[in-house]
Automatic annotation (TrEMBL):
It comes from Lacrimispora saccharolytica (strain ATCC 35040 / DSM 2544 / NRCC 2533 / WM1) (Clostridium saccharolyticum). The keyword Disulfide bond applies. This is FAD dependent oxidoreductase. GO terms for molecular function: 2 iron, 2 sulfur cluster binding; metal ion binding; monooxygenase activity; oxidoreductase activity, acting on paired donors, with incorporation or reduction of molecular oxygen. It comes from the Bacteria. Pfam families: DAO, Rieske. Keywords: 2Fe-2S, Disulfide bond, Iron, Iron-sulfur, Metal-binding. The lineage of its organism: Bacteria, Bacillati, Bacillota, Clostridia, Lachnospirales. GO terms for cellular component: cytoplasm; membrane. Residues 416-460 form the Rieske domain.
Length: 460
């Protein structure tokens, strides 16, 4: 009775959070799968990674089918800040120290190639997606030594990096790493155009994959190759991705009017922000944390205070959250799903950098599926073992999963249908979240993010 009362009391507070992208674009709908089908490649997931992979495979002459449980771009692609950049926080000095300079160089080269490929595609196909070349900055108001080291490392690896002390931010910085030749765009407008000639079946939920059979709620697709591009792989074995990844949530607010800051920005300090203009609007991001472990103070309240202080003439327009898959060594998993399933492929674990990672994944997977090798295969291989890079994260991730699984055995717990972890309520996002693997559910129990595939019967 208490649970039912709580549900109806809080339901009135819950509003579907929409982003600037979902509110300002319309992608024409596609029909569900009409029944059983055969194809050469089936791609599961119609986000940026899945659509780009299908696009390149089709350009290579393969017959490709994309299946999507909801709508094209309805997942994380619609809630990104859409920075197209090879600047991935303090990544390059870390990679050199933990996995070696050659791996770090290839990681940077793959992502810079991805940045440049967007520009080529957009120009070649005359895609109208508010594409703007824009420098990217990694800044600090407290220190400069770590940024200087990162800039020198990235430049040595062949990236367009330099250390600067002046930015377009409305406050002084101690230092910043500047990457030239980067860009920003409207991801759903891009997705709308690049997906126009693809065979996509929306509102078609994949239930399971057995060998070459992709079983959906609308029929079975028999394929020679299967690509998992569904954000977080929902198949637990083989692959064991649940043991190799976790998810993080972050918060974004949109303000207007805000003059151009002449760059895309990310802070490295403990209480730092992400900045990115969209015309005369500003996307202000903050508050990244492991999904299921929300902070005591509201990230939205913190963002609003910061926005009011920095841009007193601006008003809040909307707010939303984003969720990202994090690997243990900070490198995405792109390539064969498992040595036991040579015809399955995966693209996941993009961290906060889904734009460049999606393009890199599409180029790598399309090459592998068509029988070509790339210099990047080993770098992103899901079968790699970087123990030095992953050791600390592996221990903390394992501990959180054990705690969540143990709490799930308590009578009366609201459990995740993925592996039984006890769900927790995010009072800022108004969703149930799994602290183990990051699945999330609306107030009524409807699933909003995997790897779980089923909703939860909240009111029983």
């Amino acid at each position: 009775m208490v649970r039912i009362f709580w549900y109806f009391n809080i339901k009135n507070e819950v509003k579907k959070m929409k982003s600037v992208w979902t509110e300002s674009s319309v992608i024409p709908g596609r029909n569900p799968l009409p029944g059983n089908k055969r194809t050469e490649v089936v791609v599961i997931g119609a986000g940026l990674a899945g659509i780009l992979t299908a696009f390149y495979l089709q350009r290579h002459g393969l017959h490709v089918v994309v299946v999507e449980a909801n709508r094209i771009g309805s997942g994380q692609t619609g809630y990104t800040t859409a920075k197209i950049t090879s600047q991935h926080n303090l990544i390059y000095d870390k990679l050199v120290r933990t996995v070696g300079e050659e791996t770090a160089r290839l990681y940077g080269k793959a992502n810079q190639m991805a940045v440049e490929e967007y520009g080529k595609l957009i120009k070649r196909y005359s895609i109208h997606c508010h594409y703007e070349p824009m420098d990217a900055y990694l800044y600090s108001v407290q220190e400069s030594e770590v940024l200087l080291r990162e800039a020198e490392c990235a430049a040595r690896l062949g990236l367009p990096a330099s250390f600067v002390r002046q930015t377009g931010l409305p406050f002084p910085v101690h230092g910043a790493v500047r990457f030239t030749g980067q860009a920003q765009f409207h991801p759903l407008e891009f997705l709308r155009d690049i997906s126009a000639e693809l065979t996509i079946f929306e509102r078609t939920k994949v239930i399971k994959v057995q060998g070459h059979d992709v079983v959906t709620d609308k029929g079975v697709i028999k394929a020679e190759k299967v690509v998992f591009a569904s954000h977080y792989p929902f198949v637990n074995m083989p692959g064991f991705y649940f043991a190799k990844m976790y998810q993080e949530k972050s918060y974004v607010m949109e303000f207007e009017p805000v003059e151009s800051l002449h760059g895309m920005y990310l802070g490295i300090d403990e209480r730092a922000y992400s900045f990115r203009n969209v015309g005369d609007k500003l996307l202000l991001g903050y508050g990244s944390h492991r999904t299921g472990k929300a902070p005591k103070d509201s990230p939205f309240s913190t963002i609003k205070r910061a926005g009011g202080h920095l841009f007193p003439e601006a008003r809040e327009i909307r707010r939303w959250t984003a969720q990202d898959c994090m690997t243990l060594d900070s490198i995405p998993y792109i390539g064969p799903f498992s040595s036991l399933r040579p015809d399955w492929y995966v693209a996941t674990g993009f961290g906060k950098w889904g734009m460049s990672s999606s393009m890199a994944a599409a180029k790598i997977l399309s090459a592998q599926i068509t029988g070509r090798k790339t210099p990047y295969d080993g770098v992103f291989s899901p079968q790699r073992h970087h123990l030095k890079a992953a050791a600390g994260t592996l221990a903390s991730h394992g501990l959180e999963s054990v705690k969540g699984l143990s709490a799930g055995t308590i009578p009366g717990a609201v459990n995740c249908p993925h592996m039984g972890c006890r769900l927790v309520w995010n009072r800022y996002d108004k969703r149930w979240e799994c602290p183990c693997h990051g699945s999330s559910f609306e107030i009524n129990g409807k699933i909003s993010a995997g790897p779980a595939q089923q909703s939860i019967p909240f009111i029983d």
